Here is the input.
Amino acid sequence: QKEVEQNSGPLSVPEGAIASLNCTYSDRGSQSFFWYRQYSGKSPELIMFIYSNGDKEDGRFTAQLNKASQYVSLLIRDSQPSDSATYLCAVKTKTSYDKVIFGPGTSLSVIP
Amino acid sequence: DVKVTQSSRYLVKRTGEKVFLECVQDMDHENMFWYRQDPGLGLRLIYFSYDVKMKEKGDIPEGYSVSREKKERFSLILESASTNQTSMYLCASSLAQGSQYFGAGTRLSVL
Here is the structure.
């Protein structure tokens, strides 16, 4: 079983809709969870992090964490064509150092 | 803003050459990382460092070495470049909580 799993997509949503990106992880003791956005040909950029169960909102983005189900999601409200990118889920493990495990990414396409 | 600078955006090298990739961060982060990213394989950790002169192997360290002589600088070394090391190389740094900040990347071609 892979440590961090995501649907590879592509996920297509119409402009203005809600995009829902999902991620599951295998290490039950994982502590911190991150979402990165990566445009084609560019490097990943951090868009959100979440440490506690529940929801965390930042503008049009909401991260949701359910540690019991080992599940983290990212919702993008009012999706825009500029949101079209690959979204990487990353999970910080229990090791002493800040090694994170990246998922394979989900490709999102927002259709005008 | 955190700035992570990689010395080259594009590099072309020949098989057997020794290759140095440099990374500098300006935010006094303890941790620094080197990844490679290949289509269909995602981000794979090569090495990371949590302090000056300290290093830990990642998932794919074979054929690579690293150097961290100063806190702000983390170098990746390909001892003898091979064609299967053609890839996008990404450097990142982080504070203790784990949020990583990436450089722009170096696209390396080994011919």
